[in-house]
Design a protein that fits this description.
about 375 residues, single chain, alpha+beta, five-stranded mixed sheet
Length: about 375
């Protein structure tokens, strides 16, 4: 609309300057100058795209001023561009307003313009018919423009809905494919690991019965633990592929309560800083890190007290799990024996190695080692 609108404005200004009487600063000339100024300013505002976004009342005010100033110009300067200024109001009304208000505004402006032309020009029949037909023509063109714009908007909406439907279909296909892969993974890997775990349990009992060496029994026991851990990881992977909800930091209180109930360990949880959302992969890494650290405490430091701390720092989230020294010689020996191999930060332990890998995938880091006679596990995830 803007290019054609500015052509209208330029045509009205040029015609007014060349008309009779011309704009001036006294008498009728002053009235022509004032009407022309109102028309130009109102047209410039009405053609602004931001004004088009305003409500019906704002559009009606602009159209009324355009029509009024155009009719005033037609009356004060009958030998100028009769009807051109007022017809711009008709055109904008047809484009901007709904059908009912557009018909009313166009009819009022056209009737007022025809009446002024009839009073100021003689003979009046031909000019009245000309300006009326011109206004009707602009109104029809304006309605076609509005219909075209509405059709374009509807087409864009339908295209967006079609794209959303395609995205939803692709997501559903991806979920179905992940479900198929999860089923295959479960059948092949999880079943194989379950069979391996059973066989290793039988081998461990056979080794105990036949009096095998301590090293062989320990190797078989460790293999059985690795098989169980692999089975658990396989089940988690299958759940993730199927879209199951993964655990988060918010579930740590429930994890600790369950751990306290199952093992009788005196364990506390502290939250430092204001809790905030953590990226999904980091969220899972923190939960699994706490789970692994608590499992190691139950295995290799039975009876020790433990403290879990989640600190929300400015640019990272820090998980700390610390246990006190073992209260008994047996517990200390256990912690110093196979537990030391498992909890070494050099990478000998499968559980802590997995924890470090999870943290690194999330962009963070994990550390573990002796601390004040006990053991400390610390995991950092960037926020």
């Amino acid at each position: 609309m803007r290019p054609l609108g500015w052509v209208f404005i330029a045509a009205v200004v040029i015609s007014a300057e060349q008309g009779h009487p011309a704009p001036g600063l006294s008498g009728v000339r002053l009235g022509i100058t004032a009407a022309l100024a109102v028309f130009v300013l109102t047209a410039a505002v009405a053609l602004n795209p931001r004004w088009a976004e305003r409500g019906l009342a704002a559009q009606a005010v602009a159209i009324g001023l355009l029509g009024g100033s155009g009719v005033a110009l037609a009356g004060l300067q009958p030998h100028g561009a009769t009807g051109l200024a007022a017809s711009l109001g008709v055109w904008i009304a047809a484009v901007r307003l709904p059908a009912g208000p557009a018909v009313v505004a166009s009819a009022v402006i056209t009737a007022a313009l025809a009446a002024v032309v009839a009073l100021t020009q003689h003979p009046a029949a031909q000019p009245v018919i000309a300006v009326s037909l011109f206004c009707v023509l602009l109104a029809v063109i304006g309605r076609f423009i509005r219909r075209s714009r509405q059709s374009q908007d509807q087409t864009e909406l339908l295209m967006a809905q079609l794209q959303d439907a395609r995205d939803a279909e692709a997501a559903a296909a991806a979920v179905a494919e992940r479900g198929r892969i999860a089923g295959e993974l479960h059948d092949v890997l999880a079943h194989a690991l379950s069979g391996l775990a059973i066989q290793l349990q039988g081998a461990r009992k056979l080794a105990d019965t036949e009096g095998a060496s301590a090293g062989l029994r320990a190797a078989i026991g460790r293999s059985a633990e690795l098989a169980k851990e692999g089975l658990a990881e396989a089940r988690q992977a299958v759940g993730a592929l199927r879209g199951d909800r993964l655990p988060t930091v918010s579930q740590l209180p429930a994890l600790i309560a369950e751990f306290r109930r199952d093992t009788g360990t005196d364990i506390s949880l502290a939250i430092e800083g204001a809790p905030r959302p953590v990226p999904a992969e980091g969220d899972l890494a923190i939960y699994r890190g706490a789970q692994e650290a608590l499992t190691n405490i139950a295995r290799y430091a039975p009876g020790a007290t433990a403290a879990v701390t989640v600190c929300y720092a400015a640019d990272r989230t820090i998980l700390t799990v610390e246990n006190s020294p073992c209260p008994s010689a047996e517990g200390a020996a256990a912690a110093a024996g196979p537990g030391t191999e498992l909890l070494t930060s050099a990478g000998g332990g499968h559980g802590l190695a997995s924890m470090r890998e999870r943290a690194e995938r999330a962009g963070g880091s994990a550390r573990s080692g002796p601390h004040h006679g006990g053991w400390l596990v610390e995991l950092e995830i960037p926020s």
